[in-house]
Amino acid sequence: MDYLRHDLRDALDEVNPEVVQTSGATTARKASVAGIACSKCKSLPAPGCKLRYCGRCKARPYCSRECAKADWSVHTRVCDSMRRAHDEALAGHEARGGRGQNLNQKKRETLSWFVAVPGLSNEVELLAWKHRDESPLILVSSTNPSDTEGSDVRVVMIPRSIWDEDPRFLDTYSETSREHLRDIFDDPSCCLNTQFVRTDSMQYSEGILPTRETTIRHFRDDLVRSAEIVEALTATTRAEDLVNAFAWLERVFRRDKVVETLKHIRHRATTMHGSITPDGSVPVSSRALNNEVAYMMFNCLCLEFSVRLIGLRSAVHLNGREGVVRGLDPKSIERWNISMDDGTYVSVRAVNFEHIRRGDYKRRSP
């Protein structure tokens, strides 16, 4: 059984860290998430080429004059507020000693830094999805650009009731920023079920204003779907939920790993959980197997899988305690290591934990 332990760990490590359908799309997806694709057609600039920006606001990127013209009927509603926000950002950038023509490049560097933090984009997007009815601004901030793991990154959900009405919002943001947010959310084309607003803020040096960039992002269907599947998997043992999980894994795993990964899940279903699973079929659902597949999905997304211990007989005092699954126990293929809230570790079977914190997901800690 030792070979299975290592092969399963390899399979867990081979999943793409963010939701992408093919590994070749990784660069394009990251650039798009960073907000540096054409605002109209969403295409990336060709090698050696640069995006153009709206001549009025200097902030809306396009790949061509044709796309800029085609987008004008939509962009015109927010162009003025974007121009004011850009002018404000430019003044701050120059006050920090930066060159005016390098402002957009600095913004792209800031956005790209946040995109590179494992699991952060997924955490932010699922938070925005959970609170989408509140017209939220998702603030993502850091004060340590040299920490590529993003250990100090903070993610805060600011509902419209705060950013639009609370005077304390202006202690940190300008009235121009508030007006820009109003233009975005009041635009008739704004759909809270398809898009959200995010501000990335990086404090590059102590004592100076941070570099901020506010962008409109679009919800990714596969990411939202992943949370729905995990919640269904860990709430009950319906056959269709495991079928949905298999279909999701087939979309996000590297193509050369799909067959191998599903084979290992079927093997565990048979050897660990007593499910007779013919080749090519989905195993019979069980609480333990569902927990393992749900953990695998969140591991793929670089999100923590938070659990509560249940049903322990030899360690009854641990029942009800909460922690985070950290992977297979290296000493036993049947058990999983749980990092408890007090920093200790325990090793339990998958049947002895239940998923918690539904809808409130955090990226995996470095």
What would you say this structure looks like, in words?
This protein is an alpha+beta fold. The protein is built from 12 helices and 11 strands. It has helices at 2-13, 26-33, 65-75, 79-95, 103-115, 120-130, 160-163, 175-186, 221-233, 239-252, 255-271, 287-300; strands at 52-53, 61-62, 137-142, 154-158, 195-202, 211-218, 306-309, 322-329, 332-340, 345-349, 353-355. The strands form 3 sheets. The protein has a 5-stranded antiparallel β-sheet. A 4-stranded mixed β-sheet has the order 4-3-5-6. A two-stranded antiparallel ribbon has the order 1-2. Helix 9 packs antiparallel against helix 10. The radius of gyration is 23 Å and the shape is elongated. The two termini are 30 Å apart.
Low-confidence stretches: 1-35
Structural class: alpha+beta
> Taking strands numbered 1, 2, ... along the chain, how are they ordered across the largest sheet?
10-9-8-7-11
Number of helices: 12
Distance between the termini: 30 Å
The proportion of strand residues reads: 15-25%
- What does the average pLDDT come to? 85
Percentage of residues assigned to helices:
25-40%
Largest sheet: number of strands, sense, barrel closure:
5 strands, antiparallel
Shape: elongated
Structure summary, number of beta strands: 11
